[in-house]
Design goal:
It is a single chain. This protein is of the alpha+beta class. About 30% of the residues lie in helices and about 30% in strands. It has 4 helices and 8 strands; from the N terminus they run H-H-H-E-E-E-E-E-E-E-E-H. Helix 2 packs antiparallel against helix 3 and helix 2 crosses helix 4.
């Protein structure tokens, strides 16, 4: 594997996702995606063509993912997303984001969540850097105002967001253990 990595480096090519949001997106899509989603998203993730970010934490709920208040409503066959995420690493570079949003407010907080694949480069998605004390801004706030998600980019089925997010988080924990 070291030889392959060296050749990729020499040629200036991006290697397969080993860590970070690209890998989390790939692993989650592989586990929960349908054939169309795997076809459309996996190759650009693995080739490095698409950068990804993880849109989980919110200002009002922090790391309490089940407390998500970002809303996704199905309108005319498309999901409209409204809300805010915070502490999103590399959102300013991302082409896509893995997003947990509330789709049913009448259910308990661990239910009524759905998991989406969000195009970050569209109207209605605003990324604002959070400046750190050292001047760097690797974390971001992301504001979504009527951001659109095609119905085909709901991952894992309506209301299954908690289970899909648990998959993402299990891969994230494994990457920390391996690092």
């Amino acid at each position: 594997a070291g030889v392959v990595a060296d050749v990729f480096f020499e040629r200036g090519a991006v290697g397969a996702a080993q860590t970070g949001p690209r890998r989390l997106a790939a692993e989650t899509i592989l586990a929960h995606g349908n054939a169309d989603q795997k076809q459309r998203f996996l190759r650009p993730i693995l080739s490095g063509e698409h950068a990804w970010c993880q849109l989980f934490s919110e200002p009002g709920s922090g790391s309490d993912l089940a407390g998500a208040s970002t809303r996704a409503e199905l309108v005319n066959g498309r999901w409209l997303v409204n809300g805010q995420k915070v502490w999103t690493t590399s959102a300013h570079h991302a082409d896509y984001g893995i997003l947990v949003a509330r789709t049913d407010w009448d259910l308990p907080k661990h239910q009524g969540l759905s998991y989406f694949l969000l195009n970050m480069r569209q109207p209605g998605v605003e990324v604002r850097p959070l400046r750190q004390m050292n001047g760097h801004a690797s974390f971001n706030e992301v504001f979504m105002t009527d951001a659109e998600i095609p119905a085909a980019d709901l991952l894992g089925g309506l209301g299954n967001g908690w289970a899909v997010a648990a998959t993402t988080l299990s891969f994230e924990r494994r990457s920390f253990a391996q690092g």
